[in-house]
Design goal:
Two copies of one chain form a homodimer. The first copy, chain A, is an all-alpha fold and 231 residues long. The first copy, chain A, has helices at residues 17-37, 44-51, 55-61, 65-87, 94-109, 113-123, 138-153, 161-184, 191-210, 217-230. The first copy, chain A, starts with 16 loop residues before the first helix and ends with a helix. The A-B interface holds A 117-118, 120-128, 131, 133, 181, 183-184, 186, 192, 195-196, 199-200, 203, 206-207, 210, 219, 222-223, 226, 229-230 and B 117-118, 120-128, 131, 133, 181, 183-184, 186, 192, 195-196, 199-200, 203, 206-207, 210, 219, 222-223, 226, 229-230. The structure holds a DNA duplex (30 and 30 nucleotides).
Chain lengths: 231, 231
DNA sequence: GAGCGTAGTTGAACACGTTCAAGAAGGGGC
DNA sequence: GCCCCTTCTTGAACGTGTTCAACTACGCTC
């Protein structure tokens, strides 16, 4: 029996060899073109041509152009997570770790600010797979939350245990807010967003610290309970 | 060919009589169709046909389909402002007025929840005239802020003067947040959004009340200063 | 009235995202 | 070899938002 180069391909990551290859080819080409010339300028025909396949073939693998952007989105997010891993290796104060993580996010996205808006547009649509709240985004979202959990867990600062459990998700939400601001930030080099991070990190730190005092318990509880109810 | 009968329509706000009339005709038709069948289903050709004009004519008055949606948006916002005027006529506690105003907003938007998402999509784009932060939206935004100022001014509750000045804008921002949640809210009748309003109004009220205490001054100052810097 | 310039109007044409019926490639089972 | 089934691939075709050169209607001056 001749062993082919094709491995068993049970059910793990590759359904079939051939298909996965063209899929990758299309994704890579699309990601490259998105980065080079932006979302709107990059047409499905251009992607297909550059990848050496037909338009219909791209649609065999991706239901829509949006789904191709998600691949791009994932790439950026992976870069962010990777950058954070190094930054958060050593423990430190909560404020330092938070600032570092958030700043890394802004830094990672920076090259794409020009066309981020046009894909942010589709991400804002409720039903879109690109929406940060969508089921399709769940892996990326969880990865990001896990990263913020590491921010919290590696922090030497004291944090109220009840808040601590939910804090990673809340910080992720804050990061979404920063991203929202960043997308609309027209200041040169998005310096205003950097300012926002620089100053809101200590602010969040202070609020977290305050929540440990007895007199803030009711309001902290209320916020947490409301958040749990509505997410 | 059906000719619409043109009456004088003595100009009070119109630059020219004829143009303004077709403009209105197109807007009204578009708004009607948007409400009837949603954003995506309503094509520019359908609008033009229903209005009895050509496609190109619609583009003579409106640079894009998005700009037509803005007319719809303005209509809804006007309804909200009008509803609030009655609700806020008599003075009351801050929390009651805030809840009433925000709830009225949700109530006004409710009929359009089905297709709100698709137009929200374009509103989220940074450059879009539909963006709540855009120059084109300034009148609507200012009207809304003015409404929240009336919420604050008519309140019998004591409020820190420094906060009081910025509070209307912050409340408008909160309202934007509620709207953001509302758009993504898939609960029946958007009851979760109503819950959000019901419970966040007392929360905001409590935070506002707390900000009067001496020990909160620094953090309040920092928040306000950061907000002023970044808006 | 004649001429002229601006405002208003038209519909064909363009490029795009997306769909689909049709075909090609590949791989077992006999 | 042959058949059959699934996976993959194609490109023409559809409907969309948008553009544009051409045309018409109107108000103005002389």
């Amino acid at each position: 029996m001749v062993r082919t180069v094709v491995e068993p391909a049970t059910s793990d990551t590759e359904p079939t060899a051939k298909g996965e290859q063209t899929r990758r080819l299309i994704v890579d080409t699309a990601v490259r073109l998105f980065g080079e010339q932006g979302y709107d300028k990059t047409t499905m025909r251009a992607i297909a041509t550059a990848a050496g396949v037909s338009v219909g073939n791209a649609y065999y693998y991706f239901p829509s152009k949006d789904h191709l952007v998600q691949a791009f989105y994932t790439t950026v997010q992976d870069a962010h997570a990777e950058a954070c891993e190094q930054l958060l290796a050593a423990p430190g104060t909560f404020v330092d770790r938070l600032r570092a993580a958030m700043l890394a996010g802004v830094e990672t996205m920076a090259p794409y600010h020009g066309f981020a808006g046009t894909f942010f547009k589709t991400a804002a649509e409720p039903g879109s797979p690109l929406s940060p709240f969508s089921a399709e985004s769940a892996p990326a979202r969880e990865r990001s939350v896990r990263m913020f959990r590491s921010v919290v867990d590696g922090a030497t600062t004291k944090i109220d245990p009840e808040l601590r459990a939910e804090l990673p998700e809340l910080l992720w939400l804050a990061q979404m807010g920063v991203t929202l601001y960043w997308v609309h930030d027209t200041s040169p080099g998005q310096e205003k967003t950097r300012l926002l991070v620089e100053r809101s990190a200590p602010l969040i730190d202070r609020l977290v610290a305050m929540s440990r005092f007895r007199m803030f318990k009711p309001v902290t509880r209320e916020i947490l309970s409301l958040y749990r109810l509505l997410r």
